[in-house]
Amino acid sequence: MKKLRVIILLFALLLVLPVVSQVISNSSRYNAFFLEAICERAKGNSDAAFDLLRHCVEIDSTKSEAYYYLSQYYGALKQKDKAIACIEKAAALEPSNSTYQETLANAYINLHQYDKAAAVLESLYDKHRDRDDVLGVLIQLYEEQHEYESAIKTLTLLETVEGKSERLSYAKSNFYTQLGDKKAAIAEMKHLADQYPNDQNYRGLYANALFVNGQKKKALEIYDDILRIEPDNRNALMALLAYEKDEGDPDKADALTEKVLLSKNITSQDRILLMRQEIGQSEQEGGDSTRVLYLFRKMLDQPQMDADIAILCATYMNLKQMPNDTISGVLEQVLRVAPDNAAARLQLVSYAWQANDMNRIISLCQDARQYNPDEMAFYYYQGIAYYREGQLDQALNAFHNGIGVITQQSDPDIVSDFYAVMGDILHQKGNDKEAFAAYDSCLVWKDDNYGCLNNYAYYLSEKGIQLDKAEQMSYRVIKAEPKNATYLDTYAWILFKQGRYTEAKIYIDQTLQCDSDTSAVLLEHAGDIYYFAGEKERAVDFWQQALARAAEVVPEPGQPVEDRQQILTRKIKLKKYQKE
Which of 316, 322, 341, 394 has its CA 20 to 30 A from that of 440? Predict the structure, then answer.
């Protein structure tokens, strides 16, 4: 009999062993594929990780972690249905895993399925009573679904953990108001105010609850009492102002507005909001700026903690197209409070530029280099101002410093002009090799900088080098601006340098037609071109005009007027082109 039992047991084991072996085999295969998937994920090989995870769930559909990671990949692929199905599966397989539950709740929230999200978080909180943050999210979800009673219950639960507070009591009072339970809404805030009888802010919140729930007279009495005790109490002032604006006397509202704006306890944000309302009302009533500017002046006469009001005032003055010098005074006040305000400083630079006040620009930009060392525009304007003042070394220094803050995000137009002006300065200083390198850099940033193309081409032609390159650049410029006399003159001169005199004469004639105030240089070019085109009498006539004009104007830097006049005099006297 015992022998028979052993035989039966052995037979049963033979039946079970293949199944156990299969389970062990599947588990090992799953673990191997899952580990490989995580390794590929860590390497950033998303496609490989995605394929391996899908194979994992084919091997064993009872393991949660593969579904969790798959939901992320499906989410990245914008396949919302598959993403939500995977995280639902993971959460169902392992309901004690808070990460899965939170991820599922967030997924439901993103889909605006607030009821499902709330159910998941309620379950999560039941398992993890230390998760107060879950209660906060639940309150928001209940509010979205207008489940105010559930929100109140959750707030009460949160109060047992955190204790009674302004934030929680205020929220409960609001929910009671939404439910139409005015008595409970008022009682909630009264209870808080009674706890802190000497805190006027809590009394103000109680008054707010009274006001919102229909007991306006009692609320106004409390506001008045608060202001008797604390004349600058922000909450009472703002509440009374709102009442006077909506239901009270307009004159009282105006007087109270001024009081509020000048109160020491009002925040900058409050002042900005009120002034925007004043500006909006002023514009609706015809745009008279008298009262608005009066209020701004009153506020700006007080010590300023920040620059917000001054900035808004300057913006309003711009809107009303007030004089630059008037706006400048306000912008100066901005910089006294916030010297790093680049926008205000740049506007002042703009006004100085319009007034042709180069010294002012230099001073503003020099200060900016302390407060805004990475703002490229200040180096640019300072360099230009120095250049306009003939201070070439200082201009070059400003541009060199500005290049040091150029990044790939810099404005290509400004960077291009940086290098273009640097090239002009370097040429004037006789450093043509560096000048041409600067022009090359300019064109890398903006290949259609026509001023740079013109100057580059002209200076190459003056040196008699790379004339083909110069001709191509100059031709591109005149195709873009065919009526620009300066550009036409450059092209005519390059053709002259190439010995293409007939073509040069065509373009110098166009230049003369387009130039209303012909310069000595242009007239001399015309004479030289006409001479080699075979019209020597006309050439002499142009040289004579050039000589007369040279005596009237200041020469270009580096070219003494006497030298220019001597060359022209020899040409006229000999009636022959003179190579310089």
Answer: 394
Q: Answer whether residue 5 shows pLDDT above 60.
A: no
Cβ burial of 2 (10 Å; 0-12, 13-18, 19+) is exposed
Nearest to 104 by CA among 60, 55, 94, 143: 94
Q: Which residues contact 20 (CB under 8 A, 6 or more apart)?
A: none
* Planar angle of CA 246, 250, 251, nearest 5 degrees: 145
User: Using an 8 Å Cβ cutoff, are 209 and 185 in contact?
Assistant: yes
d(CA 406, CA 419): 11
**What's the CA dihedral at 61, 65, 66, 70 to 10 degrees?**
120
For 544-562, how does the pLDDT look when each residue is reduced to its tens digit (9 = 90+)?
A: 999 998 887 655 544 555 5
SS (H, E, C) 197-255: CCCHHHHHHHHHHHHHCCCHHHHHHHHHHHHHHCCCCHHHHHHHHHHHHHHCCHHHHHH
pTM of the model: 0.69
Q: Which two tokens stand for residue 263?
A: 């109160």
pLDDT at 560: 52
HEC string of 448-460? CCHHHHHHHHHHH
Closest CA to 122 of 139, 110, 107, 109: 139
User: Residue 11 pLDDT > 80, yes or no?
Assistant: no
**Cβ atoms 257, 241 nearer than 8 A:** yes
Residue 389 and residue 407 in contact, taking contact as beta carbons nearer than 8 Å: no
Give the pLDDT band (50/70/90) at residue 423: very high
Question: Quick one: CA torsion of 355, 358, 363, 364, rounded to 10 degrees?
Answer: 50
For residue 226, give both structure tokens. 């608060």
Task: Round to whole Å and give the CA distance between 399 and 395.
Answer: 6
Angle at which helices 342-354 and 308-319 pack, to 10 degrees?
Answer: 40
